[in-house]
């Protein structure tokens, strides 16, 4: 019989029996009958463990290797120190395979998830060899990597399986087909895109929610319920839409002009402090509740703010879900005809109108040459006189103050 057919005699390290075939060095997975006595671990010492032989690199491992779970009693029972030391040697070679020539290591073929799990096992083995008990060593490892009792239990399970057979590597169900989003289905993408296009220019993410709530759609794609609004917004980008708006120019703000600042500091703020004590104070918790209406005695002061808004014929919604392949379309030049709305509003009563609702100080003004002209001081005075008439008739028990924007049109 040739040398290659000879079998080396069995060698015993502590309570572990290893058999070598030919010149192959002993490894943790060579053990035929590992002892699981917890007292053996406590009694073992470094002086009792002989120097371990140099290990050859472990065979190449594919990431598809499945982990065979150990029985529960194997997970709780600690292996011997020798078995763990052999496993440490194996893991070091698996995680850091040496080059065929020279120093350094080769790149492993392990996935990042598998490599992370093997590193956790290596931390666990080292903590156990350093003197910690089997369970506390696993818990300390889990805390060290920022995990909890579940990972502590899994590390013990992976480690016990690896010691029994070095082909038993941790297997994590991660990145498989079961984790893929349903929107990756090309048929579903195309159907949703056609549905959104049929709704016109202005579509919303809620349209996907409503569409997927149909039973026939759910049956066609194996869905049990519709999706959330947040997921629908993500799916909008998957089917080719983006949330955006047309670019606009910058506005020039005149609030910090010297004359405006001077008027605000020396006229407006002092005048406001004079009337502030007699105004109603509204609760921050309940905006409809007045805090000082019943306790204060005397006439109340109601502040009416004059507000103007201008609407243009070519005003359109500028922000919407735009198809990624949308092309520029001709648009009407300019803003179009305008309509200005001017009215008074207060925190006490809302828009200014009579108690019966038949009279109002609201003004609709078609500004422009050839139309109503321009809203000047004269129009402001006419509107104020009408507002004062309504207040004198329907709100005679209160004092009223009108506040206008600091604009040239409002000065007289």
From TrEMBL:
Residues 13-44 have a biased composition (Polar residues). Residues 1-69 are annotated as: Disordered. Residues 50-69 have a biased composition (Low complexity). PANTHER family: CXC1-LIKE CYSTEINE CLUSTER ASSOCIATED WITH KDZ TRANSPOSASES DOMAIN-CONTAINING PROTEIN, EXPRESSED PROTEIN. This is Uncharacterized protein.
